[in-house]
Structures are given as C-alpha cells and as structure tokens.
Amino acid sequence: MNNTVVKICGLQDVEVLKSMLNLPVDYIGFVFANSRRQVTAEGANILLQQLQAWQHETRPEGVGVFVNPDMDFLSKVMEQAPLDVIQLHGQEDAVFCEAVKRKFGVKVFKAVSVHSKGTENHSNSIDQHVISKDYVGVIDALLLDTFDPIYGGGSGQTFAWEKQIPHYQEWSSEHGIPLFVAGGLEPNNVGELITKYHPYGVDVSSGVETNGLKDIEKIKAFIERVKQI
C-alpha cells in the first residue's frame, strides 16, 4: 500500500464524517477562514468528537485552516475545538508561526499559494520558490495550493505542477519538511501527481464533492486511488 498521507479538507457534515470512520485518512481539515466550507468553533468541536470514534487503525488528526488569524481568534477556537494542527494560509511569517506552535502546542502547516498558470502569488510572504530559512525548525509541513483571489485557496483548480513542485520539493527535502500538494486534486488526477512527484501528502476538498457537498463515494475513490499506487 502506498504511504502517501491523505488529508480530506472542508468537512462540515457529521453524517459524512461518520461514514468515513473505517477509512485510512490521516488528516481531517476544518475551515475557519472565509469560505463556503467555513465552520464555527462549536461546529468543529462536534466534528472533532467523531475522530475519537475512528475505527481504522490510525485516528486522523484535526486540522484547522486559517487565513491571517490573530492570536485572540485562535485562542477562542482552540478553547472550544482542540485541534491537532493549525494550517496557516495567509501572509503569516515565521515569528507568528513559531508563536502559534509555542502557545497552543500544536503542529503548524504553512500553505503557499501558487497561480494556476505557474506564477507565484507574491502577496504570500514565503511564495518565492526560495522560502525563508526562518521557517525551518518552525513549520511541520509545507502545503502547495492554487491561489484563489477571494479565499486564498480552495479554488478547485490545479496549478502548473511541473513548474512549481520541483522547486518546493527541493527546499522541503533539503530541510526535512514534509510537502503536501493541494489544488484541484480528484480521483482521476491524484495518481498522476503521486507517480510523478511523490509528495509526502495530498490534500483534497472540492474534488470529493458533488454539488458543493462532500460525497462519500468520491472520498472513498480518492483514498483508494492514493493508497493503491
């Protein structure tokens, strides 16, 4: 079985999560940033409780997705929804990432937004192919996602893998930081991504939805495709 880790992001529905309890999922993502998939801290806590009932041998870790949050907001969320990972999708610098890690005792994932045509979103503080070494020893994973001008990520579009992934892969490998790839992944293209680039993990949201809602059959198909390679 392939050891690429799987993150299913943008969960909102308890019943969908209950139907996933036997699946080999490594991370479940809850979006606290402005998005149609946004959840409240109260809602996320209800969903997080389902992770305790996971029946597969590995229990997924709960990931909260944020864009440029302040510490007060993170504190309010963490008081109600005890996340394992805080994923930062904005212009958060290494100092902020380190402060988050220290204050809450969680893993910190840093997302980099890249444009679908292969150019970088230069508003993102670390999206320059050459990432500041200040993040080394601070972040627990680097995540590539397709830039969305409204939400920052979650566009459902792929980016230019061949132009972007090798640069970040080299950086992440050099510094021992796991690399996740997101952006437009779905059951029909995730196999190609893994075969060509062998990322540490893959992250999917809209690619396992039907009419904007998580589809358990698509989730199963995505996971099966990842694990059978």
Automatic annotation (TrEMBL):
Residue span, N-(5'phosphoribosyl) anthranilate isomerase (PRAI) domain: 6-224
Organism superkingdom: Bacteria
UniProt entry keywords in alphabetical sequence: Amino-acid biosynthesis, Aromatic amino acid biosynthesis, Isomerase, Tryptophan biosynthesis
Keyword tRNA processing: no
Pathway: Amino-acid biosynthesis; L-tryptophan biosynthesis; L-tryptophan from chorismate: step 3/5
GO MF terms, alphabetically ordered: isomerase activity
InterPro entries per the UniProt record, alphabetical: Aldolase_TIM, PRAI_dom, RibuloseP-bd_barrel, TrpF_fam
Top-level EC class as recorded in UniProt: isomerase
Family: Belongs to the TrpF family.
Protein name (record): N-(5'-phosphoribosyl)anthranilate isomerase
